[in-house]
Amino acid sequence: MSAIYKTIQKRSKELEQETTRFLADMVRTPSFSSKEKDVIQVIKKEMEKVGFDEVRIDGLGSIIGRIGKGSRVVAFDAHIDTVYPGDKAQWTFDPFQPKIEGGKIWGRGTVDQKGGMASMVYAGKMIKELGLNEQFTIYFTGTVMEEDCDGLCWQYLYKEEKIKPEFAVITEPTNMNIYRGHRGRMEIRVEVKGRSCHGSAPERGDNAIYKISRIALEIEKLNERLRNDPFLGKGTVTVTEVRSSSPSLCAVADEAGIHLDRRLTFGETKESALAEVRDAAKRAGYPDANVFVLNYAEAAYTGKVYPTEKYFPTWVLDEKSPYLKNAVDAYTGVLGKAPLVDKWTFSTNGVSISGMYGVPCLGLGPGNEVYAHAPNEACPVEHLSGAAAFYAALIASLNGKA
Fold first, then answer.
1. DSSP 8-state code for residue 181
2. pTM
3. Residue closest to 378 by CA, chosen among 108, 195, 118, 120
4. What DSSP string describes 154-175?
5. Does 81 participate in catalysis according to the annotation?
6. pLDDT tens, 379-390?
7. Domains in the chain and their CATH numbers?
8. Can you give the pLDDT at residue 402?
């Protein structure tokens, strides 16, 4: 292990207690999508405390911390909104009263994904105090609304704030592995019309529920025909909601629709996915079904509405990327073992950073993604210091200091 990696490793362990305390402060501050205002203030205070060069909040409400003023730009990202706790009876403790037990910190958001936020802020502290950065302007973004609309925050950062990094690191949970991509996704609506009549004489009408049911069964068959990729795996589609309307519960439905969750593997696009669904409707006997991508237009906690289509492209970092080589070298150097290089099952802000804008991207984060959105969420404390050490080591590697 090189001298700088030894120094980073030692310092990250010295800061482990502070990193964990910061994570606990965030967990105690609920921050559901579009309700992140209070936790943003907690993060702002911490960034200022550890000595970031600049801390500001954008129009959508995400926090942007900056270290350095080099000509090259890199970014670390953590979304700081969480899902709700769900049925609290499934928790063995209050999800917003964090505890440290069994070498883990427990609470909602410890894995998904305030742990990544805590680690990258303390990586920033190390980068600055150890003088690891010369070439780069480094942005550390605590982003909002990801759970509701992944990537929207980075559409805003890229287009409105003009933050256009040459390389980005996502700190979503990876169980301390390096991830270099994931499937994309889109939300599709299929609607059909019928003709209502009194339920006592259904033959007089045209029941839209029967139509949409036949289309749903064709969607089930479509799932078996979708493209496969050796790295990302298979594309999938599933019906997640069925709705209908009629003049009353004693009347035949005059309209019905289904909501589709479509996961896109490498090579699948919005156009190809819509064409496949339209073909499924045609096979069911309803070529005139209305098939379209949904839109998101909810207000952020700032009041800002920034509409987007619910199409989130697939992305993969090439396995020969020099950034991946830097990451593997930094990981091996500071953590003392070779990393597993893999992919996420779920979706991240990478759909915008890399999928929409082509910025090379990879990820490493504390915690195991299997605990995301689950009761009794917990992250190993050693992951927090390990992730912080990796982020700092990566910057040292990129700057040629390792």
1. E
2. 0.94
3. 108
4. HHHHHHTS----SEEEE-S--T
5. yes
6. 999 999 999 999
7. 3-182+314-398 (3.40.630.10), 184-296 (3.30.70.360)
8. 79
